[in-house]
Amino acid sequence: MLTPDQLKVIEESPYKADFPLLAKNPDIVFLDSAATSQRPEQVLAAERTFYETMNANPLRGLYRLSVEATESIEQARAHIARFIGAVDSAGRPQASEIVFTRNASESLNLVAHTLPQVVGLGPGDDVVISIMEHHSNIIPWQQVCAATGANLVYLRPDDDYTITPAEIEAKIGPSAKIVSVTHVSNVLGVENDIAAIAMRAHEMGAVMVVDGAQSVPHLTVDVHELGCDLLAFSAHKMGGPMGIGVLWGKAELLDQMPPFLTGGEMIDSVTETDAVWAPVPQKFEAGTQDAAGSFAFDAALTYLDEHDMDVLEERERLLATYLTDQLAALDFVKIVGPSDGARHVGAVAFNVDGVHPHDVASILDMSNVCIRAGHHCAQPLLTYLGESSTCRASVAFYNDKQDIDALVDGLKTVWQVFNGR
Amino acid sequence: MAVNPLYNAQFIDHAQHPDYKYQMDDPTMSHEGINPSCGDELTFSVRLADDGTIEEAAFVGSGCAISQASADMMSDLMVDKTPQEAIELCELFKRMIRGEETDVEMLEEQLDEAAMLRDIAHMPARVKCAELAWRTLQEMLEENGVAGTMTATVNAACDHDHAHDGEDA
């Protein structure tokens, strides 16, 4: 339960005014930020600024505009590297370790298509993932295992939604070559102990991949503290534009990985029969990149920096706790996940007794409350939990107590509609 | 709070107390329909009379209120219809649910209570839920011929409709 002082912190949102969609539509209660976040004015303005003042094809041009476009991409890379702690011992951001993709899904596909060659994945080897992965971190590995004869092994949480040290030790053994686990579950909202999983993976000689789509937007992530080798995430879940994703990787590993997509911009030289790859990260960025998108993503990170990730993270924890407590207080609602609100990073999954999640979402929509309902691209997890689908409400720092109260009112209406009182 | 007019008492009654939701004895034919993304699943059964008309219609299964209410309303409508009439009603319902047919008077005359589901035309994510029963019935009748000559029990292969309900990472 929150203290009166904590409740006061979340009573209103000082951030909503910065988000045009929320500011112009005060009746919209947006509780689906785990699917995509809203974007602040600064990000929208940056996208426009790029096209108005520095629009040219980056990398290739020898004139001022193209140079500026190129520099904007490199600045964004450096900012992203700093944001996730990808810095050297002197604190300098390792911009060349930042690969731009379209989204976290593409980042994970890039890894699944190129990493197996590096580790020599073959029959009898294990690829270890967890049952709480998004389909984006399951299907690429299913394909890899089908093609190589490797085994797909699942880490499973206990009744308290925790992947225990015993489970980590049991499942990640000497046969493990690749371990790929989500930092935060997009359904349960729980944070996995990536540092412990990465340590075990490395002890067994495996490469550690992390899906950070749900963690980088909400937690201060430091790749060195996590101990991972590769990290995938998306701009659009953290205030940036849709269509820009990131793969961070240790330089020596990225160097060993072959290209994913080939063509323009990713080569040093080409002959009739062969090509020499450009250095990392350009090796992985075939074709014209979304330079405006990376410029706008840079602006989104600046927004988060200026408002202090630690402050935003604490506010989101209070919001998630209030959300969990309010849902738990409704006797017709069952939370699917930990009852401790502080364990929810953004997302809380739940069901209304006897009402299908799609009906819940449709009725909430009539009061402009936006939540998600379905399997959340995590069908193996829902099957494991014995649910065919759930509702999911998710918060970001721009939400406030009133948003959650509107959800609770809406859920009472849902119950009344189906129970006539 | 404004509640979607779709979720009125009549609709909820069909969803929660369906008259036609039971296991039919000796159906002429049965067919299973699934919306994997929603978890909606139903098996629809009919028994044809000697003159080839639908004598009895019933379904079993589970799913959201829209899929269940829609199946119940459809079952009520189909009794005493010929298979050809049933298929035409299925086509009309699908046009209504996709917003292609908006003549309310005609829809109410032809589809009776099921016409109340026309608001789903504005809820694209729910079209598949509303259509499930109608699609299942139509497939069953078409796959087994519509001349009303069916006498044997036929259990057609289940249909998997790969609706998308994903979320991009």
Describe this structure in words.
The complex is a heterodimer of chains A (421) and B (169). Chain A has helices at residues 4-11, 20-24, 41-53, 64-83, 104-119, 139-148, 165-171, 194-203, 223-226, 251-256, 291-307, 309-328, 357-365, 379-385, 401-419, and strands spanning 29-30, 98-101, 126-130, 151-155, 176-182, 207-211, 230-234, 245-249, 267-270, 275-277, 333-336, 347-352, 369-370, 372-374, 390-394. By secondary structure, chain A is an alpha/beta fold. Chain A has two domains: 4-30 and 309-419, Aspartate Aminotransferase, domain 1 (Alpha-Beta Complex), CATH 3.90.1150; 46-305, Aspartate Aminotransferase, domain 2 (3-Layer(aba) Sandwich). The longest helix of chain A is centred in the N-terminal third of the chain and has 20 residues, at 64-83. Chain A is globular, with a radius of gyration of 22 Å. The mean pLDDT of chain A is 96. Chain B is an alpha/beta fold and 169 residues long. Chain B has a single domain, classed as Sufe protein. Chain: A. Chain B has helices at 9-16, 65-78, 83-97, 104-111, 127-143, and strands at 29-35, 40-48, 54-62, 154-155, 159-160. In chain B, strand 1 and strand 2 (40-48) form a beta hairpin. In chain B, helix 1 (9-16) crosses helix 2. The longest helix of chain B is centred in the C-terminal third of the chain and has 17 residues, at 127-143. Chain B is globular. Mean pLDDT of chain B is 86; it is low at 147-169. Chains A and B meet through helix 5, helix 13 and helix 15 of A and helix 1 of B.
